[in-house]
Design brief:
The protein folds into 2 domains: about 100 residues, Beta-grasp domain (Ubiquitin-like (UB roll), Roll), CATH 3.10.20; about 110 residues, Fumarate Reductase Iron-sulfur Protein, Chain B, domain 2. Helix content is about 30%, strand content about 15%. A hairpin with a 2-residue loop joins strand 6 and strand 7. The strands form 2 sheets. The protein has a 5-stranded mixed β-sheet, covered by helices on one side. The chain has a two-stranded antiparallel ribbon with strand order 6-7. The termini are far apart. By secondary structure, the protein is α+β, with helices and mostly antiparallel strands. It has 9 helices and 7 strands; from the N terminus they run H-E-E-H-E-E-E-E-E-H-H-H-H-H-H-H.
């Protein structure tokens, strides 16, 4: 005869939210092979959890050698950008239930940057392009005795491009960047935009000349991949077009 305790356990088991999901991960270890391979992992996981939770489960319970970047796990640091089912996304912001868990979930590193191991790429070329556009406020004169005031309208002019978290999702979704790593890329242009249109800044002309280079803003082909890939919803293509317009008119 069943006891009330056993009945409760069986009822909870029947109502379990867990499902079986296949994570198909692209693996690469240069110390083992020069070629990348695919490896499948079967997970029992709540579909309301995130892809990052699944990767943690693999690393902590199944294969400790799996290598990937993550930090805040809340879509702020941008560390865990990767290709999930062929699209650039943040693993910490992507729910399993939103990407058809009935089929294998493919996970691979972002494109256009050298893969160091598994899902980790060399971000140095990306950050060098970011540094090259001078992503900081440039002013002249003595240090002010109070803050540099700015009207709400002036602040709104570049508000969208302040949202960038340097995850590289936009840049590594760009076909021009895939074919030519010398292109500055959308993220660098977005961060230049943020200061070019800042009314307090005095180096707009200098940044425009940097982006007027053969590897600069004119390489953009307006495919909108970058806008679609941005996890922060930045209108990346629009920002690039505004920089192009500023170069032509020298008005910003």
């Amino acid at each position: 005869m069943a006891t009330p305790v056993l009945d409760k356990v069986e009822a909870e088991s029947a109502a379990s939210p867990y499902i079986t999901v296949t994570f198909r991960v692209r693996r690469f270890n240069p110390e083992v092979s020069a070629e990348a391979t695919w490896e499948d992992f079967q997970l029992e996981i709540d579909p309301k959890e995130r892809v990052l939770d699944g990767l943690h489960k693999i690393k902590w319970e199944l294969d400790g050698t799996l290598t990937f970047r993550r930090s805040c796990a809340h879509g702020i640091c941008g560390s865990d950008a990767m290709r999930i089912n062929g699209r650039n996304r943040l693993a910490c912001k992507t729910l399993i239930k939103d990407i058809n868990p009935e089929k294998p979930i493919t996970i691979e590193p972002i494109k256009g940057l050298t893969v160091l191991k598994d899902l980790v790429v060399d971000m140095e070329p990306f950050f060098q392009a970011y540094r090259d556009v001078m992503p900081f406020l440039v002013t002249t004169g003595n240090e002010p005795t109070r803050e540099r005031l700015q009207s709400p309208e002036d602040r709104e002019r570049f508000d969208d491009t302040t949202k960038c978290i340097l995850c590289a999702a936009c840049t590594s979704s760009c076909p021009v960047f895939w074919n030519d790593g010398q292109y500055f890329g959308p993220a660098a242009i977005v961060n230049a935009h943020r200061f070019i249109f800042d009314s307090r800044d005095e180096a707009g002309e200098q940044r425009l000349e940097i982006l007027n280079d053969k590897d600069g803003v004119w390489r953009c082909r307006t495919t909108f991949n970058c806008t679609d890939a941005c996890p922060r919803g930045i209108e990346v293509t629009k920002a690039i077009q505004e920089v192009k317009r500023a170069l032509i008119t020298r008005r910003f």
